Amino acid sequence: MMQHQYIERYSGRVVTEQLLADRMVRLLYHGVRENNTRFFKLLTSSWSSHILGMVNFDRPVLSRRNLLARYGVDRSELRDPPDQLDTPRKIFERKIRYETCRPLPQEADAVVSPADARVVIGSFRETSLLFLKEKFFSYEELLGSDKADWLRAFEGGDFAVFRLTPDKYHYNHVPVAGQVLDIYTIDGDYHSCNPSAVVSMATPYSKNRRVVTIIDTDVPRGTAVGLVAMVEVVALMIGDIVQAYSSHGYESPSLVESGMFLEKGQPKSLYRPGSSTDILIFQKERISFSDDILGNMRRSGVSSRFSHGFGRPLVETDLMVRSLIARAVPVKK
Fold first, then answer.
1. How many domains does the chain have?
2. Which domain holds residue 36?
3. What is the pTM of this model?
C-alpha cells in the first residue's frame, strides 16, 4: 500500500505519516467489508468502538515519560502536571496552555482552525477550482436531509475537512465568533478516519454519528462570514463528543445551546478518544481560504492517499488549533 504524506504548515516539510493500525484498517475496509457485511457493521458500531477505545486507551502504563514521548506530546504546552497523565486516555484528553502556545489572530475577520489537525479544503460550486463532489461526504446526508433551511443556506458554499489523529490535542475550539442558531445530533456509525478507509468507502463522514452546530456570525461582535456549520464527526474508537464550551480557559464548561454567543478560539467540545474529524461549511462567497493551504493541497511530488484515491491533487496541511485558515470576503452592496 502506498504511503501517506502531508505538509507541515510552518516548516513546509513533507512528512510521511505513520498511520495507527494501518494494516488492521486496510483489512477491515478491503477484506471484511467486501466479504462479510454483517461483521463489518458490528465492528463499526457504537458498541465495538467503545470496547476498542477501552482496550487501547484505558490501560495503565509503566513509564509516563515514554508514553508522552510516543504520542509526541510537548510537555511545555501542558496545563496540568505531566505525572497526572498516566493512561493513553488522559493524554488524549489533555488540556494545554492554548492562550500562549496556540495564539489567536487578532483580526476580526479571521476564521481559525477548530483543531490541531490535517486539513483539505473544497467547494460545492462546479465553477470553482476547489470543486469536490461527494468525495468525503454527501452534502445532504451530512447536514441532514430533513434540514431544508440549512441545506439551502449553504448551497454552493465552501468547506474544510480537518482530520485529527490519535496523538493530537483533542479539544475542539470555536472557529468563528457568533450566535448559535441550531445544534443537533445525527446518529450513525463509527467508521475509521484513516485515509484508506475514507477513499475505499463512499462519503463515510456523512454516515458517522455527528453533531452539527449552526453559527450566525453576522451579529454584533461576530466574524461577519455569514452562517457557518461546524460538524463534529465521531470515528472508530471515539466514544463520545462532549460539548463543553468555556469562555475563559477551560473553566465552568457548559453545554452548547441555541441562542448562546460563542467567542472565537474558545474550547467548544472534546472527543473521547481515538481519531476523529471536524468539517466546517461556509456560505457561498463569504470566505477566502489562506494561500498556503491552497498551494499545499495542489502540490505535486507528495504521496497522498487522497490524491491517489480521488484522482486529483489533495494534499493535507498539518496545522494548529486557532491558527488562521481563511478571512471574510466583504459583502457586495
1. 1
2. 16-57+95-328
3. 0.88
In percent, the amount of the chain with pLDDT more than 70 equals: 81
**Is 45 a residue whose pLDDT tops 80?**
no
Place of cell 483580526: 107
Asked, for residue 270, whether it belongs to a domain, the answer is: yes
The residue count of the chain comes to 333
319: Cβ contacts below 8 Å, ≥ 6 apart: 9, 113, 116, 117, 118, 119, 293, 325
Q: What is the pLDDT of residue 47?
A: 46
206 is a domain residue: yes
Classify the phi-psi angles of 5: left when phi > 0, otherwise alpha if psi is within -120 to 50, otherwise beta.
Answer: beta
Nearest Cα to Cα of residue 277 among 229, 215, 208: 208
- 76 phi and psi angles, rounded to 5 deg: -70, -15
